[in-house]
Amino acid sequence: MNYISVQNIDSLSEWVKQALKIKKKPLKNKKLGKNKTLGMLFFNPSLRTRLSTQKAALNLGMNVMVMNFTNEGWTLEFEDGAIMDQGASEHIKEAAEVVSQYCDIIAVRAFAGLVDKDKDNAETVLAGFLKFATVPVVNMEGCTGHPLQALADAITMQEHKTEHRPKVVLSWAPHPKALPQAVANSFVSMMQLQDADFVITHPEGYELNPEITKNSVIEYDQNKAFENADFIYTKNWSNYTDYGKITNSDPNWTVTAEKMTLTNNAKFMHCLPVRRNVVVADEVLDSENSIVIEQANNRTYAAQLVLQKILENGH
Amino acid sequence: MNYISVQNIDSLSEWVKQALKIKKKPLKNKKLGKNKTLGMLFFNPSLRTRLSTQKAALNLGMNVMVMNFTNEGWTLEFEDGAIMDQGASEHIKEAAEVVSQYCDIIAVRAFAGLVDKDKDNAETVLAGFLKFATVPVVNMEGCTGHPLQALADAITMQEHKTEHRPKVVLSWAPHPKALPQAVANSFVSMMQLQDADFVITHPEGYELNPEITKNSVIEYDQNKAFENADFIYTKNWSNYTDYGKITNSDPNWTVTAEKMTLTNNAKFMHCLPVRRNVVVADEVLDSENSIVIEQANNRTYAAQLVLQKILENGH
Amino acid sequence: MNYISVQNIDSLSEWVKQALKIKKKPLKNKKLGKNKTLGMLFFNPSLRTRLSTQKAALNLGMNVMVMNFTNEGWTLEFEDGAIMDQGASEHIKEAAEVVSQYCDIIAVRAFAGLVDKDKDNAETVLAGFLKFATVPVVNMEGCTGHPLQALADAITMQEHKTEHRPKVVLSWAPHPKALPQAVANSFVSMMQLQDADFVITHPEGYELNPEITKNSVIEYDQNKAFENADFIYTKNWSNYTDYGKITNSDPNWTVTAEKMTLTNNAKFMHCLPVRRNVVVADEVLDSENSIVIEQANNRTYAAQLVLQKILENGH
Questions:
Q1: Which long-range contacts (CB under 8 A, 24 or more apart) does C220-227 make?
Q2: Whether A296 contacts A53, CB under 8 Å
Q3: A139 beta partners
Q4: What reactions does this protein catalyze (chains A, B, C) (predicted)?
Q5: Any CB–CB contact under 8 A between C37 and chain B?
Q6: Among A9, A6, A19, A98, which residue's Cα sits nearest to residue A295?
Q7: C49 to chain A: nearest residue by CA?
Q8: For residues B109 and B77, is the Cβ–Cβ distance under 8 A?
Q9: Do residues C67 and C180 share a domain?
């Protein structure tokens, strides 16, 4: 069993229930991971993912080996049949097969380069590990998805659920740097597994990959989208059509207290790290309705559920 | 309970006694830290602090998650109300609150920048974690203090105590790079908690922060200061008045065997790393009177005492 | 007991036997390393060595503290009597003595600089730790040798041994970057402890250090060397005479399927990472005769045997 995308979740409601059970007694399965080793391979920076996934493994009694691939290891080649006379020292085939012998589970983080859309969509690094690793692989954020985040998001929404069918809004917000679409993509895919009034709002031209958004409702008027919302999930992403570019930095898209008044006293969510007063105003982030810290906390239980399922599968 | 400065020590003699007890049986409290996690966050290089604090946690049975914040995580913003459209990706508020959820204790190392005195005195990073973390915070060397070092220093002096009230000299020495005042500051504060004939010696103009030195005796004549000393603690610091500058590199301040003859067969101390034959001559560092290696060893027990106190407090 | 070179192996056949026993029950000695700490100090990148040595320590129940010395610690001075007014912050004497107090075993990786042959042959870093450390030291690849690799190689060959006295060929291959001779050296030294028809093949002028190759047979004709070989061990190294230079990049030395037909259905070995289609063709590396992945797997058991011997010695 791998955990590469939200599609790997067979029953979201069941998973969320199980994760909340883990959250209540995080050390209950401390023996499950005994003598098992999680290898965490980072091709990009990480705070929450790094520490929460590690913590999840420790809660399960696992050993953890953390490696920053970029500066601690060798540059990898991913192309089949490549004549490796350039910068790359090692082919993913050997790297993945070798690491599989030292680890029972491999977790990988490798962001989008945001230069070559096809290459990013191919998830070169993650797909390479998936192809050649002989042990389960966990996605700690790839080019196009961040399914551990989406699972944590689902857990968090369950904890704050409304009595009625909730209205959930994914709202784009401006950002000074070009960011990947990964978090937004996985959130969309996760929402498609839920019964909710789900609306995506962003400036025209900022459409996410249509193969991911599918039939999800898109509303270009942010104010209209916010109306009666129960959850506002904010996240910047760079342009997907004009790939990796920042074509809009309109500060009117920043989530403010005023905009939140349009909602049904909505909870505010964000995956973090968040640019204060650019993506969202202090007044919102510091309000009682902000659940971003609990959302980050749930990263541990999302990761722990995934690791637990893999460990149980392996027995 | 936090351990941010020497002022957090309620009874130095009691703490030193307890640390020496730990040193005798370092694994006695191996169960105390079970299922507890220490997060060690580094904003600067570290050898002794990194390994001894980790070792201390392991001796207590804790899990340890080590993170080099500078290259593994996100650039932090510390200003309240900042519009984060520049380099920083995450505000200390979120970072500290989030890490608090994965760790039972957070230890932080963040050196002085030596450019802006007010900013350094404000201990931006450490104060940020202290303000927003919801778990105890340990100072692994901040801009203005290094209290784990000072505690190890006190332990080491106790092991080598004289029968009479000791004369302890903190002596400045030259150094090719501009260094923080942190170690010297904490040593001074720690000595102010002891009954000793304590003298600080440095070139005129190299006064430490007077709010820290208070009434401590300053003697500009190094030779005179060394007379009958029982402990010579050497350390370079950059100019505090002409902030962060090197205004003196007089090699006559280097501690030599000849100078040591002025003392009462004094023990030689230094926090390490030390520049040989610049700060102190080989002949002194390699002499029987040098206790720098034991001093480094005691870093483990200083850290272990602090972690133990925090863990006991938490129960 | 240290493990610095292949010469530290008292009986290769006995060690290989013991390692294969460990491989069968890797967790059998899980209590041996309890409360013991391995410090792994890296001055260079590492994948296999990093993870396999760590895994070996975990299998023995040890704690592991990993440190990338180059960017996490202080620049070291190695010269005796140096006036340290330049770049280096700490002398190896203090560093090694201090780390010895936090760790029960110190493992060090420090590659050849390939600029100054005498300095590389002196193994400055490793020799420094060996001289000043007060606990056992393990070589995780130095300038001139990689004995953990050679031990893993011996284990792997034993697993694939022929009924007759095997013919083993160490074949140079081209490479776009100047590489150290360490792996080749240790392989040669290890082969000299075995009963085999051992042949080294490389272009004229690419002789390894004659003090290492001694009486080992050198055959400049690669095809002739390959004839009837049972094991082809391929590895690039830069010129030892014209020190650290690439004076040959003849693609005819690449190991191809055609060349392998000259052998006695030989197993193909390489320490990895390997440059595909430069050092060896895909067709060989991906063939059934390639045992490079198992060779990497055996790194764990080589390291575990060494750590186990040191731990047993220490009791």
A1: C222/C171, C222/C252, C222/C253, C222/C259, C223/C259, C223/C262, C225/C169, C225/C171, C225/C199, C225/C200, C225/C201, C226/C169, C226/C171, C226/C201, C226/C259, C226/C260, C226/C262, C226/C263, C226/C266, C227/C262, C227/C263
A2: no
A3: A108
A4: N(2)-succinyl-L-ornithine + carbamoyl phosphate = N(2)-succinyl-L-citrulline + phosphate + H(+)
A5: yes
A6: A19
A7: A73
A8: no
A9: no
Measure the CA–CA gap between A28 and A31, rounded to whole angstroms: 8
pLDDT in tens, C186-215: 999 999 999 999 999 999 999 999 999 999
pLDDT tens column, A281-299:
999 999 999 999 999 999 9
Q: What is the pLDDT of residues A252-267, one digit of tens each?
A: 999 999 999 999 999 9
The tens place of each residue's pLDDT in chain C, 315 residues long, gives 999 999 999 999 999 999 999 999 999 999 999 999 999 999 999 999 999 999 999 999 999 999 999 888 889 999 999 999 999 999 999 999 999 999 999 999 999 999 999 999 999 999 999 999 999 999 999 999 999 999 999 999 999 998 899 999 999 999 999 999 999 999 999 999 999 999 999 999 999 999 999 999 999 999 999 999 999 999 999 999 999 999 999 999 999 999 999 999 999 999 999 999 999 999 999 999 999 999 999 999 999 999 999 999 864
Say if residue C25 is in the same domain as residue C124: yes
Is some CB atom of chain C closer than 8 A to the CB atom of B276? yes
Tell which residue, C137, C235, C245, C226, has the closest CA to residue C190. C235
Please indicate, yes or no, whether residues B32 and B128 belong to a single structural domain of this protein. yes
Question: Min CA distance, B239 vs chain C (Å)?
Answer: 18
- Whether residue C181 lies inside any domain: the answer is yes
User: Residue B52, SS3?
Assistant: helix
With respect to residue B81, please indicate whether it lies within any of the assigned structural domains. yes
Pairing of strands B63-68, C37-42: unpaired
User: Are residues B102 and B64 located together in one domain of the fold?
Assistant: yes
C1 in any annotated domain: no
Tell me what the pLDDT averaged over chain A comes to: 97
**Residues A115 and A175 occupy one common structural domain:** no
Answer yes or no: are the C-beta atoms of C134 and C175 closer than 8 Å: no
A134 and A202 co-located in one domain: no
Give which of C305, B139, C50, C281 is closest to A72, Cα–Cα: C50
Q: Which residues contact A256 (CB under 8 A, 6 or more apart)?
A: A280, A281, A283, A284
pLDDT at position A299:
98
Tokens of A93: 């085939």
User: What gap in Å lies between CA C315 and CA C311, rounded to an integer?
Assistant: 7
**Residues of each annotated binding site of C:** 46-49, 74, 109, 141, 146-149, 175, 235, 271-272, 275, 299
Listed as own residue / partner, the contacts of C117-124 with beta carbons closer than 8 Å and 24 or more positions apart are C117/C240, C117/C243, C117/C244, C120/C144, C120/C180, C121/C209, C124/C78
Residue matched to tokens 């704690």: C63
| C151 inside domain | no
Residues 74-103 of C with CB under 8 A from B: 74, 77, 81-86, 89-91, 94-95, 97-99, 101-103
Distance of CA A192 to the CA centre of its chain: 15
Q: How far apart are CA A186 and CA B258, in angstroms?
A: 70
Are A177 and A269 in a shared domain?
Answer: yes
- Is the same domain home to A104 and A28? yes
User: How many domains does chain C divide into?
Assistant: 2
CATH number, position C232: 3.40.50.1370
Distance from CA of C40 to the nearest CA of B (A): 11
Calculate the CA dihedral of residues C117, C118, C124, C127 and round it to 10 degrees: 120
What ipTM did this prediction achieve?
0.96
